[in-house]
Amino acid sequence: MRAPGFWAVDGRMARLLAPLSTVWTAAGRARRRYASPYRPAVPLICVGNAVAGGAGKTPVALALAAELKDLGLRVGFLSRGHGGSERGPLRVDPAVHDAAAVGDEPLLLARSAVTVIARDRAVGARFLEGEGADVIVMDDGLQNPTVAPTASLLVVDGGAGFGNGRVMPAGPLREPLDDALARVDAVAVVGEDRAGVADALAGARPVMRGLLEPLPGTERFAGTRVLGFAGIGRPAKFAETLREVGAEVVEFVEFPDHHRWDADEVMELVERARELDATPVTTEKDAVRLPAAARDMVEVFPVALVWRDPAPVTAWLRRVVGL
Questions:
Q1: Which of its termini does the chain have fewer beta carbons within 10 Å around, N or C?
Q2: Which residues hold ATP (predicted)?
Q3: Region of residue 317 (left: phi > 0; alpha: psi -120 to 50; beta: else)
Q4: How far apart are CA 256 and CA 271, in angstroms?
């Protein structure tokens, strides 16, 4: 799905839908109130967000895992496997599974550490305990009451912020912001804080800041004519990144989040790029959803999250895992 435009502005449509937001909020609170969450025997860190769509959770989860591995810990990722057909619990193997089976994020996570998908997060957490994980990093799940995290991190896109500040369907929030903040220990702002996230929080929680930095090798796109395309939470963010490295974006095509391309769609993009004398390029997250036979036709632009100040992040993680 695409986020409706009125989610960005508190206008007439948002106000009309506000009564439904009250119902959504009440249902979410009731679900949490009557839940009996599983408490894992090892630390579990929830990397979640408060809005529908992408905020940068997976890059943040990968960055936290890298820090934890540097501390000598065996990390296990836990994911719902959004967009995949498998219910789990299932250990993800990128050589065997595809995005249709396990979703796109788990395929990226599995390149870094043991990754388990499970619609039932409590069952998935137990599975990872059996796999010998010293610490579990749960990608998404802040609104899931079936497990009790040791600590939670709220991830916010610095460009989009909290939209019009209303709860779905009147706005992009999955729950009232105060409800989310009450259950997290810190906030990670990804990208430049153009939406004034830190000001909106008014010191309610410590803020960690990170940027999605192009990985070595992406400098080859400088001066190159490209046709970019993406099906992520905010595709325009990818277009901006391409321009920042000096690529000449002659055309950019946006798709809904988690869009799964068929061979014909990819060929249309490749042929259009050929007409424009351009190189078709997409994100790593999108690339795993391309048909296997078409992946060599498209260039991939990898990025990674880099903390502006890693010291507070490391100190926070050490406290969480008891080091």
A1: N
A2: 51-58
A3: alpha
A4: 21
Check if the beta carbon of residue 303 is closer than 8 Å to that of residue 241: yes
pLDDT of residue 308: 94
- Per the structure block, which two tokens stand in for 262? 């068929």
- Residue 52 annotated as binding site: yes
Q: How far is the C-alpha of 52 from the C-alpha of 286, rounded, in Å?
A: 18
pLDDT digits (tens, 9 = 90+) for 273-300: 999 999 999 999 999 999 988 889 999 9
The CATH number fitting domain 32-212+305-321, selected from 2.40.33.20, 3.40.50.300, 3.90.1010.10, 3.10.310.10: 3.40.50.300
Ligand-binding annotation for 27, yes or no, is: no
DSSP designation for 36: -
Q: Is 56 annotated as a binding residue?
A: yes
Report the CATH number of the 216-301 domain. 3.40.50
Tokens matching residue 153: 């991190």
Q: What is the 3-state secondary structure (H, E, C) of 282-310?
A: EEHHHHCCCCHHHHHHCEEECEEEEECCH
pTM above 0.90, yes or no: yes
On the question of a common fold for 32-212+305-321 and 216-301, the answer reads: yes
What is the domain partition of the chain in residue ranges?
32-212+305-321, 216-301
53 is in an annotated binding site: yes
In the numeric block, the tokens 């043991």 are attached to 114
Q: Using an 8 Å Cβ cutoff, are 161 and 49 in contact?
A: no
Residue 167 is classified by DSSP as: B
Over the stretch 128-170, which tens digit does the pLDDT of each residue have?
999 999 999 999 989 999 999 999 999 999 988 999 999 999 9
- Is 51 labelled a binding residue? yes
Is 54 a known ligand-binding residue? Answer: yes
